[in-house]
Specification:
Number of domains: 1
Shape: elongated
Mean pLDDT: 92
Largest sheet: 4 strands, parallel
Low-confidence stretches: none
Radius of gyration: 19 Å
Number of helices: 5
Strand order of the largest sheet: 2-1-3-4
CATH class: Alpha Beta
Order of helices and strands: EHEHEHEHH
Helix content: 40-55%
Structural class: alpha/beta
């Protein structure tokens, strides 16, 4: 089973973890790492390394981050360059992560493709239906 780590600025990671656990219950090999105000990139890197080492997932670890180019993303990329079992997905949202927790038996590359599509599909806008006037209503 793939390990999943969510990281991001402020309470982004634990907020998503809270939502996942409310919907699907506590998940194994699923960790949230916040990047708090006042922490350095080295602090975050150390936290990420510690959690990755504790996951002991032979299938790999997927790190979801909030925004591309931010410190959580950059530190995750550095780890993925040291360990080819780590894949990084930026722009994480709840639909992508929920789909991911139900598909962790997939191979890492297939998993990433699937969650990317779920994340894109999960971003929608509401458009109300226009009421049509029929002859019965007085036209």
């Amino acid at each position: 089973m793939l390990g999943i780590i969510v990281t991001g600025h402020g309470q982004f990671a634990t907020g998503l973890q809270s939502s996942v656990e409310l919907i699907a219950g506590k998940q194994e090999k699923f960790e949230a790492i916040n990047f708090e105000e006042g922490e350095s990139s080295e602090d975050l890197n150390n936290k990420l390394k510690k959690v990755v080492s504790q996951m002991d997932s032979k299938e790999g670890v997927i790190i979801f981050t909030d925004i591309p180019g931010g410190t959580p993303f950059n530190q995750s990329i550095l780890l993925s360059q040291e360990d080819k079992q780590i894949k990084v997905v930026a722009g994480a949202n709840l639909p992508a992560i929920m789909d991911g927790i139900f598909n962790r038996r997939l191979e890492a590359g297939t998993f990433v493709e699937k969650v990317l599509q779920s994340g894109k599909n999960g971003l929608v806008t509401y458009e109300g239906k226009k009421k049509s006037i029929t002859e019965e209503e007085g036209i």
